[in-house]
Amino acid sequence: MTEVETRVGSRWLELREPADAAARSRSLVTTLAAELEGRAHEGAALTIRDRWGESVSHRRIVVHDLGGGGGTMRRWLAPQLPGPQHWVRHDGDSELLHDTAADPVRPTTNGGAVTDETRPGDLTRLAPQDLIGASLVTGSALLDRLTAAEIGRLVGSVVAAACPALLTLTVAGHITLRPSDPWDAVLEAALNDHQRRTLGDRELLGPDAARVAADSFRAVGWSVELAASPWRLGTESAELAGEWLESWVDAACEQRPELGEIGPAYLARRRRQLARGLAVTVHHVDLLALPPRGGR
Question: What distance lies between CA 30 and its chain's CA centroid?
């Protein structure tokens, strides 16, 4: 996506990082790690040429992280996979990429080093040549901000690279709050409409994105595994929950202006409840796509 469309505050990324880490599916990572180990033993010593004509050995895991400007996926996933690893982080926000370029990362599961490279660019125009040499493609909170055509291009580029893809924290279109409120369902529906809104000539998929991506991978013979990855927010994450509640209500009211009188009162009520133990569950979906054996 373009820099204008993807710019988020570093404070928001910092707030959500612990919730993201707790939510993402560990079972999918276990499957992924086994897949990468298997591919290494099946002929990963092949040497190819990257986009600059330099040789790249597949004994080093090369991870292309889409929308990875904040570095959160790298910090979470790299220590759970074998190494050495080289991460290539793509993002439309060049400033965010620059600010996180030197962030430290813990060693991999076998003590391998993790190196990092940044590539600013428009993710909606990702092409197969951008993923040359990839061992793995990752992305977090990404798919729901794309259109069907953009997901089609992303899937096509991953398929051309013939490497696994782990795409996490796609919104699922469902929110649970305890205690409940009569206006919860109305605001949830408005938010879902907002996430499916049209931006210029782009019709975002929002909660439909994980299904569209899964169907696209399966249509070309790839296996796909989906796993729930809910945020579970409460008093221990009250600051994040408060920020999320405000953005949720703002988006719902933007989508349906007739909620303008209801939204502020609802938000104030929920903020008071948050201090007394309001539990918020924001449902997401993680997706792991694997190429057929012998696909590389």
Answer: 18
For residue 250, give every residue at least 6 positions away whose Cβ sits within 8 Å of its Cβ, in sequence order, or none.
263
Residue ranges of domains in the chain, CATH in brackets: 3-171+200-230+284-290 (3.40.50.150)
Q: What is the pTM of this model?
A: 0.91
Q: What is the DSSP letter of 209?
A: H
Measured from the Cβ of residue 76, the count of other Cβ atoms closer than 10 Å reads 19
Residue type for position 104: P
CA distances from residue 217 to 66, 212, 283 in whole angstroms, order as listed: 17, 9, 22
Instruction: Quote the CA–CA distance of 296 and 292 in Å, as a whole number.
Output: 9
**pLDDT tens by residue, 202-250:** 999 999 999 999 999 999 999 999 999 999 999 899 999 999 999 999 9
Whether the Cβ atoms of residue 114 and residue 84 lie closer than 8 Å to each other: yes
